[in-house]
Amino acid sequence: MNAELRQRLVAVHEQIAAAAEAAGRNPNEIQLIAVSKTHPAEVIAAAVAAGVTDLGENRVQEAHQKISALQSLHPKPRWHLIGHLQRNKAKLAVELFDLIHSVDSVRLAETLDRHARERDRRLPVLLQVNVSGEESKEGFWVPGGIANSVAYSSFLREIEAILALPTLEVRGLMTIAPIVARADEARPYFAALRQLRDDLARRYPQINWRELSMGMSDDLSAAIAEGATMVRIGRAIFGERQIG
Ligand SMILES: *Cc1c(COP(=O)(O)O)cnc(C)c1O
Description:
Helices cover 42% and strands 16% of the residues. With 244 residues, the protein is α/β, with parallel strands linked by helices. Strands 7-6-5-4-3-2-1-8 form an 8-stranded parallel β-sheet. The structure holds pyridoxal-5'-phosphate. Residues 35, 37, 58, 82-83, 176, 216-218, 232-236 line the site of pyridoxal-5'-phosphate. The site of pyridoxal-5'-phosphate has 14 residues, from strand 8 and helix 9.
């Protein structure tokens, strides 16, 4: 199994490098996050031994068990929360994760800020945006996008409330593209996230809006073509999910 995992990891790194080259980008600007949800701690340990530095989990309880079981891993991986976070799990999330990609409301941001203050830490976060408007997706949604000035200014007020929270360190945006037949069809959604990021960076230049967390196993090349700095890859590294 470890040999297969290594092969898959090499193939993913090659795909990232090829997509970066095609886009005239430096592949070192793109952080691979290996999404280990549903896979057991032993498999994660093998991935770290194969060179994985960043791991993504979508559920706090599941991540808690694995992070506890993997305390002694060397080198220590960084843990990313990529799934929806309920406010009653925010305290534990602040203890466990290095970067939370899924901040999707002002209330959640305020709760995270309170817990980060108690722990006397700064908390790096990304703001999740629902660029497609699909009801099944979490995240801030601006119907009509930047062009809809009424909806957009109310979105900007929410963003300003989050930027005012003292412990939260906003580093960029995250999105999940809709499932499409051909990866290319996802490009407009990734482009929309980048345009939104560029607009926020113009309005709030005091914040470093560098990160664009977008792209999964089936659409990573399209995301890199549109400027992804973090890709979240599960199945292409670990194979099909174990449960759920
Ligand atoms: C599961 C998941 C991924 C990884 O998806 P794959 O298709 O397995 O690469 C990426 N991002 C989020 C938010 C996920 O929940």
